[in-house]
Design a protein that fits this description.
Structural class: mainly alpha
Number of strands: 0
Largest sheet: none
Helix content: over 70%
Radius of gyration: 18 Å
Order of helices and strands: HHHHHH
CATH class: Mainly Alpha
Shape: globular
CATH architecture: Up-down Bundle
């Protein structure tokens, strides 16, 4: 009788990060080619990605409840899965805000933000692909540093974008809508840094 294949938590982290990448790329492309009339369809598509990430996270949690041995501490598995899931949720949240506030055109700063978010997610995926071999990896630390730097870029972008918004826009509804949307974009960068911080914590605990 064939031995039952063990559940691989590291592969699951990579799968979840891939959903984050898919969501970030869809968000960027939706804003780059913005069309008010196809926005509801894009919302459905990005929600499907978010739902798949949820399924992956729940599967991981279910495995964790029945398995006696895990490759890293259970608390770290839970935290890392939740932080990656938070990135996917935050990315979807941006598009939801654009739809809810009936934003009709996309500010240039928003596209700069989504480029940063896409790069953050791709960098996190590379780091997570290396996590199973973190003791020998030559790249994982540099990827954590890259994400931390990108979050700082996001902070500066947020500061300048909000300043420009209040300087240039006279319609208070537009100001309110974009203030909230820019806040959500900045939150995506923060969530990516949170993932990087958990990865770094896991490495420190296990070396």
């Amino acid at each position: 009788m064939a031995k039952k294949r063990e559940y691989n938590y590291f592969d699951a982290f990579v799968r979840m990060s891939d959903y984050a990448c898919q969501g970030a790329e869809m968000l960027h492309e939706t804003l780059r080619t913005f069309d008010l009339y196809t926005l509801p369809k894009k919302l459905d598509e990005i929600h499907k990605i978010e739902h798949e990430a949820d399924i992956c996270k729940h599967e991981m949690m279910n495995k964790l409840t029945v398995e006696f041995i895990a490759p890293i501490e259970r608390e770290d598995i839970i935290n890392l899965a939740q932080e990656i899931d938070d990135v996917v949720d935050a990315v979807e949240d941006v598009l939801m805000r654009i739809y809810m506030y009936n934003i009709k055109s996309i500010r240039a700063e928003a596209l700069e933000f989504t480029e940063v978010i896409v790069n953050c997610c791709k960098t996190l995926k590379v780091a997570l692909q290396e996590l199973h071999n973190f003791k020998k990896s030559d790249t994982i630390h540099s990827k954590i540093v890259e994400v931390n730097h990108a979050e700082e870029v996001g902070d500066k972008l947020y500061l300048d974008a909000v300043h420009s918004l209040y300087l240039e826009e006279k319609d208070p509804i537009v100001v309110m809508a974009w203030t909230e949307t820019l806040d959500r974009l900045e939150k995506c960068c923060d969530n990516c840094e949170d993932v990087a911080n958990v990865i770094e914590s896991v490495i420190m605990k296990n070396t």
